[in-house]
Write a structure and sequence with these properties.
32% helix, nine-stranded mixed β-sheet, Rossmann fold, two-stranded antiparallel sheet, 6 helices
């Protein structure tokens, strides 16, 4: 699918299986989620632009590198919070914004209730964190808000994606790359990803 990167290796596949297993408890779920998030962060990092500069080692001057753009992480509340710590360990100087969306269970459309991001998004790389790309409604709405605030360089990081959500992103925000650890079969009649892994927020925070 256009603009979709599937982050897959034997360790990621093992951890996605742990995430899917309904018998996995919250501590083990969080640990596997963190490992998969690391892998996704590394894959996204391959496309990050760098600036070269001179750095003094204990022995001589050599060439070093630093990030060209400010990185802004924007988790979609609340499940997206589960991915923040892994991304911050990989990008410790990143700034963090938040978008609050909840899905209307009848219409499956997102309803916004909170928005807060750093002011200067124009020159930043903005990474939206949302474990599940299901209908795509939340991601599409989130990027609409971010673009209104000036975001031009955007990426979506998710654990599991449905074809319907990827297609909606391609239609509504075709320039935004989507990174995921698994592309699942389809959505069911309630808009849940199949086979999926259940509710990522509930399983992370133990609220099921």
């Amino acid at each position: 699918m256009k603009n979709l990167t599937l982050v897959s290796n034997p360790l990621v596949k093992r951890d996605v299986t742990i995430l899917r297993d309904k018998t996995t408890g919250s501590p083990e779920f969080r640990a596997a989620l963190n490992r998969v998030s690391y892998a996704i962060a590394i894959e996204i990092g391959k496309g990050i632009e760098l600036i070269e500069f001179d750095v003094q080692t204990p022995l001589e001057i050599t060439k070093g590198h630093k990030l060209k753009r400010q990185i802004v992480l924007v988790p979609v509340l609340r499940a997206g919070l589960s991915m923040v710590s892994s991304f911050l360990e990989m990008i410790p100087d990143a700034k963090v914004g938040h978008i609050g969306l909840q899905r209307d269970e009848k219409t499956l459309e997102p309803i916004d209730y909170y928005y807060k991001t750093p002011k200067n998004l124009v020159d930043s790389l903005t990474i939206l964190l949302d474990p599940m790309l299901a209908t795509g409604g939340s991601a599409v709405a989130s990027f609409k808000y971010l673009k209104q605030k000036g975001a031009k360089n955007c990426v979506l990081a998710c654990l599991i994606a449905a074809p319907e959500g990827v297609e909606k992103m391609n239609n509504e925000h075709p320039e935004v790359p989507v990174f995921t650890a698994a592309l699942d079969r389809q959505l069911n009649e309630h808009g849940f990803i199949m086979p999926g892994l259940g509710d990522a927020g509930d399983r992370t925070f133990g609220t099921f």
